[in-house]
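FAQ
Q: What does a multi-component entry look like?
A: The components come first, one per line:
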Amino acid sequence: MRKPLKHLLALSGTLFALTAQANTELTVYTALEAEDLQKYAERFNQDHPEITIKWVRDSTGIITARLLAEKDNPRADAVWGLAGTSLMLLQQQGLLEGYAPKGVEQLNPLYRDKQNPPQWVGMDAWMAAICFNTVEAKKHNLTPPTSWQDLTKPEYQNHIVMPHPASSGTGYLDVSAWLQTFGEDKGWAYMDGLHQNIKSYTHSGSKPCKMAASGEAAIGISFAFRGAREKENGAPLELIFPSEGLGWEMEAAAIIKGKQSDAAKTLLDWAVSEKANQLYNEGYAIVAMPGVAKPVKHFPAEPEKLLIKNDFTWAAANRERILSQWQSRYEGKAEAQ
Amino acid sequence: MTVSATALPPARWALTAWQRERLRWALWLVAALGLFAVLLLGPLYSLLSKSVADGNGAFVGLANFEAYFASGGIARGLSHSLWIASASTVIVVSLAFASAWALTRTRLPLRGGIQALLMLPILAPSLLPALSLIYLFGEQGIFKSWLGETSIYGPLGIVLGSCFWTFPHALMILITAMRHADARHYEAAEVLRASSLRTFFTVTLPGARYGLVSAAFVVFILVFTDFGVPKVIGGNYEVLATDIYKQVIGQQKFEMGAVISVLLLLPALLAFVADRWVQRKQAASLTARAVPYQPKANLRRELTGAALLTPVLGFIGLVIGMAIYASLVRYWPYNLELSLRNYEFGRMDGGGWTAYGNSLTLAALTMLVGTAVVFFNAWLSERTPQPKPLLALFQLCSLLPLAVPGLTLGLAYIFFFNHPSNPLNGLYGSMAILVLCTVAHFYSVAHLTALTALKQLDHEFEAVGQSLRASRWRMLRQITLPLSAPALLDIALYLFVNAMTTVSAVIFLYGPDTALAAVAVLNMDEAGDTAPAAAMAVTIMATCLLAKLLHGALSAWLSRHTQHWRGGR
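Then the predicted structure of the entire assembly, as tokens:
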């Protein structure tokens, strides 16, 4: 009598577990490219069909602001594909749950949080680049620059757009990278020179490259991924990777604290896997797992060698000071001409 | 003394029937104010209170304000904002008044069609004019030479863009103000042999005074608080409103965003004071004895009207036409081949059509809920006896949303509705919260339209109703509603199209299942898919145009069936 009952119980238990799993919905906040969302979810579902990803996607600034504003009552279960610096900000506010995904030790140590268990794990990196419009350059007789310093040459006056560092993470990335590469004094002197050539500061990081792509400016300081995309769409762009080295930023994933979702852990486990890294490599030249990345069209052959040693902690700690100095130096003068 | 006291009826505290009725109406208005408390004041408080707290929520007094003023550039930003807003107001109100005059005081053919065309800017997501202006006057623009040395990226671009999108707001208020005129005034002017110019200044203009002031404040505040246009086309010309974007989106400093929001609210308070002032002087223009004005055919007037309308129509047509072209072109400006490929939203991941469906649902619900709430509240405040202080508070609340930038409202909704101890937090992430937020966001102009329409109805209607012992409810149903039907339709359309195109507040509130088309437009553009973004924006515009045509047909039907009594001879 007891044995069948036991079987029955076990069976119903399994059934329950199965149906419960089949219905797991996971709310994931992301700043990934909208057109990539379906691809990312499909690849993940190949291994974990039982979890349905419910995306909330927007630009980095909006998603970060939403996550912070929802702090008292988080709605996201996990974050997959948001700037590392944004996740560090969430970490400071105590919003992230520590979890060591299976296989996290295989990632490049730069691409995971130092804490144990790590509160976020890196996925891939994107890097600064100059989008150079060859058609407009010909019109205005501009030679392609090869370094950041080149951009201060008088010939580029009024031809350069870059993101406003107080509005755009990419803009701040550039500024903090110059200060780290050239040192503070020379860095500011460099920006003084660059400011003379700036046509306008934009409010989004991809805008300068888009302006270069549509001929609204000859030169846009932006990031490589956007440039490659525009080039693919048919823009007469050349991507230039300045010789002094490139600022860079990673995309990362994390679990939001307080949700205790097993599905979120499953997602993170998958997000550090080799298969996931191959997926990242379809758009990004540098990924978190060493040895996986294959060359990507329009990107340089060994992109890692071009990156500066970016000190994210320093950049975050000094952000307020740098921004206020930047604004007092360049905002007032912006329309003096 | 004692004698008279004892002579008083014994039940001194019992209310007379009249007092009871007043109390009942006052309670209704209190309920309306309760709605404002939930939809507007509560959320705003939860955000604006951050302006006196530090990043961790500790009270710091006015330290944030000091820090903001000390950071410099405020005076510059403020003077830029004031200049942009004033210039746009003068241009928009003059043009909108001229257009409203041409549409209501002449017998130009195709007036309905012309009005639909003039409303086009409000039917399009904000990306369209921005894109158009750049394609028209930018570095590669086909008319760049017109601007000479001046760049479109700067004050010129901001004023052009702002005029474009605020024009329909002003037009809607002014048409409502001028639609019902009393023919007897014009007959009197004719009998007195007043010149047409004198008639204009003594009859037409005073009749539209309330609408003119409302329109001016609406445009001023809309431009003053908008950061969408300056963000895209402002170049290095800094205005106050873009600072919110820098602080909140760029640096996630909510407390500084709250500081700027508080500063941006100040003009709304000014508008409120002005509104009270003008309102005192406004008499009903449509008295119970009014004879509806029908413009007579007059070639000179028609020609004047056409001349006034042409430049406005031309500019709107140019901008919209360029936007449609932008949605068809392969890769501006280097591959000008045309194709319909950009309209294949199914090809686009991110669920183009799903988002479009969500937007339609949002727009329909906002229209139904919003029109009912706005009109009922306006009726309560205008056509029922109300205590003065309550009325003033209500007026303030209904004008407040105008001065709240969408971004501020969206964030405020997160803080308020997502709070763990808010019993309504289940709404967060649902379609319901998008509807509520959108109704609150666009409340003011809808309210002003309802109010303008209601003000034109003579209070004698109620007096007569009362003497016939008809309840006010019955008056509302049988007299006020049918009389206000054109304004009701206008409000419904206004809410529908704004819900279709709005981005700034809902971008913080949509959930995984409620992504919206207008947000998708921004995201596609951000991702470099400019032409598909333009295509989606054109699709939204076409939908709104369809709504507008439906609105036109309904209006025509209504005027045949409910307004023929106006002809009442």
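Q: Is there any commentary attached?
A: Sometimes. For this entry: Residues 15-21, 333-337 of chain A have pLDDT under 50 and may be disordered.
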